[in-house]
Amino acid sequence: MNTVIIGGGKGCRAVLEMLVTGRLAVFRPEILAVVDPNENAPGMALARRMGWRTLTSLDEALALPGLELIIELVGSDHFLEELYRIIPPGIGILDHRVARIFWDLENLTGQLRLELERKSSLEEQLRRERNQLQQILDSLPDAVLVIDGRKKLEYVNARFEEITGQDRASLVRDGEFIDPFCEPQEGRLGPGHICSLEEVLKTRSPVQFIHFQPGEHSDQQYFRVIVNPIFNDEGEIDRIVETARLITAQVTQARETEESERRFRQFVDNAHDMITMKDREGRYQVINEQAAALFSMSPMDCIGRTDRDILSGRIAEILIRKDQETIAKKEHSSYEDTLLVDGERRYFDTVRFPLVDYKGDVTGVCSISRDVTEQKRLQQAVIQSEKMAAVGKLAASVAHEINNPLTGVLTFAEELKMDFLDKGVEGRVIEDLDVIISETMRCRQIVASLLDYSRVERPQRQRIGLRAIIERSLSLIKKQAAFQDVEFDLRLAEDLPEVRVDPNQMQQVFLNLIINAAEAMSNSGRITLCTQLNRDRQQIEASVSDQGPGIAPEIAKTVFEPFCSTKGQQGSGLGLSVVQTIINQHGGSIRVDSQAGGGATFTVSLPATGTGG
């Protein structure tokens, strides 16, 4: 039938594609032309590629000789009415609504064809899978028996005869199935004993057990037997699958392993040292009584758990970090551990080494620790007594000399303040005098801190932000002439937790560090002050960095010891020692990072509020 398609859009392209692919088996029109005012429409483009004529004039299309049918795909009812008005008599119209039904029928036919093809494919796949299943069952290392709900034997695989020496005929007597692994089990339905197969039928639940086949020592066999019910759609037992695996070698090996483990446990439990073994994820696999008792726990409280599960955050992170270092380096390490246990600082000589499997891969970490706290205390007591004797002599000799001029400064400052107040003077002058008075009082406290170093006093702690302490410290020194050429780079975080510290002592710490930094640069350069949370978010770190000549490694090791100074005759060598004493009293730590010629950074770490310390 000679046909013209009006409307060269996507619908037209779909019709043309069906014609090209032969999907319009019952309708094979002869296309005279495709008409659309848009030459670039999808249907127009496809028609040109396929060699069909394309027109932009409807009148020209209607005048084509032999035209019998028009397929209208414009999709406009108004256009359709106009088309009916102008077409010559004897020419049929298949409008867009009828075409839509035609396409739907064609799609439905295609879907049915696909469904039939899919069904045939599934049936073939099912046949292949059944064959494969049969091959798989015969190739399994386990013996497999399939029994129906009436206890009739349906299937025996090849492996059964291999491991038991029995054939299928031996499993049937007078038409009844004889279970070769019938093991009396304590019935869950009441007193007495019933066979495993009977128990599955009664309880409708799986049963598994170890079956022992007696014989001479070398002929004894052990099987792990599992009996599983298979249910039909009505919930009734349709089949029972019984599988048996020969485990004689495993049983023998397990007994040998148990004996080795028993000897190992005797060694670990009776050792005086603390012994632990963990896997790569840090879970305790072995821990003896001595190690668990350190944290007031039993070994069973720790097995399968990590340090984060059973210890405080700070101690846990220390142990995890050292374990990970051992795993990463894959080598033995020996060092001294220091841990805060129940508020008491304990010292341990510790050996850590990686645990490896048969392939040489690291599977965990073993640590052996000996508590040397008492020996350490004796050593520190001797050192401290010598240190305190020296500091006490120095403090006694200078306290009187320093306090006298401080008393004069304080007296005159207070008198000046009273004179100004009597004259009605207020504002900046009174504020500056208040600063002089408060800082003079603080100087007197600093003199007293020399004595505090030898007789440690408990800090007067309160919750406060570390940023406020640092900013107050800066406000006290920025106006001094010595700091006119010093630039301060402040990187103080605003959202840090508070700390529980003595503000005056902490101010003394940062003043000391800032003054030392300035003097290291000859009072000219940039000092960077930074605060942040450490990686485990348990400690707040405050650092003071300078652009000075740095500290040589051999001096950095002893920089916090009394009378160690990098200032020659200008320093007493007590400043950093006092700073470390104050930090230690607050449960914190201080470290120095420096290289000769590269400046120095002193970092103070203090417990954040709520983390102890």
Q: How would you portray this structure in words?
A:
The protein is 44% helix and 25% strand. It is built from 18 helices and 26 strands. Strand 1, helix 1 and strand 2 form a beta-alpha-beta unit. Helix 13 (373-422) packs antiparallel against helix 14, helix 15 crosses helix 16 and helix 16 (503-520) runs antiparallel to helix 18. The radius of gyration is 46 Å and the shape is flat.
Structure class: alpha+beta
Specify Rg, calculated over alpha carbons. 46 Å
**Main beta sheet: strand number and arrangement?**
5 strands, parallel
Mean pLDDT: 82
In one word, what is the shape?
Answer: flat
Helix fraction? 40-55%
Order of strands side by side in the largest beta sheet?
3-2-1-4-5
Q: Tell how many strands the DSSP assignment holds.
A: 26
Terminal CA distance reads: 97 Å
Flag low-confidence runs.
185-193
**Strand share of the residues?**
15-25%
Determine the number of helices (DSSP H or I, runs of at least 4 residues).
Answer: 18
